[in-house]
Amino acid sequence: xxxxxxxxxxxxxxxxxxxxxxxxxxxxxxxxxxxxxxxxxxxxxxxxxxxxxxxxxxxxxxxxxxxxxxxxxxxxxxxxxxxxxxxxxxxxxxxxxxxxxxxxxxxxxxxxxxxxxxxxxxxxxxxxx
Length: 129
Fold this sequence. Notes:
The chain is mostly helical. Helix content is 50%, strand content 11%. It is built from six helices and three strands; from the N terminus they run H-H-E-H-H-E-E-H-H. Strands 1-3-2 form a three-stranded antiparallel beta sheet. Helix 3 packs across helix 4. The radius of gyration is 14 Å and the shape is globular.
């Protein structure tokens, strides 16, 4: 029962719901920088969220060169299938902007891969002097 409780705790954060919804809608792996630009959230924040989601068994990751790509965990069991359907049913008005930003961001891919890093530099979380 603990693993199910952890999943619901993890998804109790709106940013994590937005991340999962984007990944489900994208139908492809996304790297953190693509999520950062699409969600307009700081890089450290998105990284923290995907780490928690991966720990809860919601996401899987794959490293390729310097990039780490994330995708939803395969919905093999009934629980994850129903959870994915519930997240996909979040009304469009809540995700419209995120999806529009993701469409723009994916146009920057070369050969189907992210090669650009975070484009919206104010989201890198750098401290200015």
